[in-house]
């Protein structure tokens, strides 16, 4: 069975790095409970400015913000879709949503079907 990946890009205030890591660490077990087989959170380190567009522009990152790139692996799109349904109604996720250490309105995300895993 082909896996399914959900990717996220967000702008996080640099001053909130530890809060973001704590937030992500608290959320990861819930995502796994809902079906994610892997949760990866990456703090931007080498994010070049693009000529037409780039990661910073995609999330309207401010000068004091760092781009975060994350992805979750699921066994299938169906498992991902079911997980997203659970996330929308789970009180733990709702509580976390009220105290995110970044502006969730500028986060971009989407689901992807892997076509190569070398």
Commentary on this structure:
The two termini are 16 Å apart. The protein is of the alpha+beta class and 118 residues long. A four-stranded antiparallel β-sheet has the order 2-3-1-4. The model has no long low-confidence stretch (mean pLDDT 95). The chain has helices at 17-33, 55-58, 77-89, 91-97; strands at 4-13, 38-43, 65-74, 108-112.
Number of strands: 4
Given as residue ranges, the uncertain stretches (5+ residues, pLDDT < 50) are none
**SSE-based structural type:** alpha+beta
What is the first-to-last residue Cα distance? 16 Å
Rg result = 15 Å
Shape: globular
Spatial order of the strands forming the largest sheet: 2-3-1-4
In short:
By secondary structure, the chain is of the alpha+beta class. The protein contains four helices and four strands. It has a four-stranded antiparallel β-sheet with strand order 2-3-1-4.
Annotation keywords:
four-stranded antiparallel β-sheet, 4 strands, 118 residues, globular, alpha+beta
Give the SSE layout.
Blueprint: E1 4-13, H1 17-33, E2 38-43, H2 55-58, E3 65-74, H3 77-89, H4 91-97, E4 108-112
Antiparallel strand pairs: 1-3, 1-4, 2-3
């Amino acid at each position: 069975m082909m896996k399914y990946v959900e990717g996220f890009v967000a702008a996080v205030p640099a001053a909130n790095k530890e809060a973001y890591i704590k937030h992500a660490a608290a959320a990861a077990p819930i995502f796994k409970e809902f079906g994610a087989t892997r949760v990866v959170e990456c703090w931007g380190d080498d994010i070049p400015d693009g000529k037409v567009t780039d990661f910073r522009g995609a999330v309207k990152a401010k000068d004091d913000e760092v781009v975060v790139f994350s992805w979750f692996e699921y066994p299938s799109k169906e498992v991902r879709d079911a997980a997203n349904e659970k996330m929308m109604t789970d009180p733990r996720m709702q509580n976390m949503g009220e105290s995110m250490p970044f502006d969730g309105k500028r986060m971009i995300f989407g689901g992807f079907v892997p076509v190569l895993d070398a």
